[in-house]
Structure formats: C-alpha cells, structure tokens
Amino acid sequence: MKIEHIAMYVNDLETTKDFFIKYFDAKSNNGYHNKTTNFKSYFLTFEGGARLEIMNKPSMIDVEKDTARTGYIHIAFSVGSKEKVDDLTDRLKADGYDVISGPRTTGDGYYESCIIGIEGNQVEITI
Fold first, then answer.
1. CB contact at 8 A, 32 and 40
2. CATH says 74-126 is which class?
3. CATH code at 6-56
4. Is 0.85 surpassed by the pTM of this model?
5. 62, 70, 102, 117: least surrounded by Cβ within 10 Å?
C-alpha cells in the first residue's frame, strides 16, 4: 500500500502552484475546473512520484495555522544533501519566507529546516 496523494485547499492556486514548481521542482498537470461548483485543482508531481493536489472552491474557511495543533502539520521534502538543505533554506529566506527552525540535526537524527511557506503552511526540508 502507498499514499496516492495528499491534498490541500489554498486561496491562490496559481501562486501555490508556482511556489512548488519554483522551489521543489514540481510538475503540474493542466488543472481541473468544475464549472458547476467552481471547484478548481492542480495535481503537482514531485521527483520519485509523490503527488500533491492543490484545490480551491468558493466559501472556504481560512483559519489560523498554528504550528502546534492537531491534524496534518507539514509536508516534508527530501532534497538529497545537507548542502541542498542549506541552499534551499537560504534561498527561501532571501525570498521572504520565515525560517522557523534549522538547518539543524534533530534529536532523532534528521538534518532539516522548517519554513512557513505558501499561505502559512509549514514545509520541512530534509536530506
């Protein structure tokens, strides 16, 4: 068994799509639009086959995203080396994203950093 994809609602589909393409080398499909419900989505595919569905529809509820809450908390990307973790973290920081931890080696042995990415969602960058 494998996870087929993860999905997240976002306010701005195009900006979110561009974020994952720019920083995490995502490949996007052409998108989907249900004209009856005005639901819109893209499937983003990453190296290794992982997929993220980003979605939008009218009348979504946008709540504060505290980093210490129940539920899904972050999406983690393996970039292959400490140097790549450092470089991508520096790039995101230079582009105005908040680095909330790291880069560092955690108590359980991960070398990682965490940023607050698109629309306040946490993204972990690891080897």
1. yes
2. alpha beta
3. 3.10.180.10
4. yes
5. 70
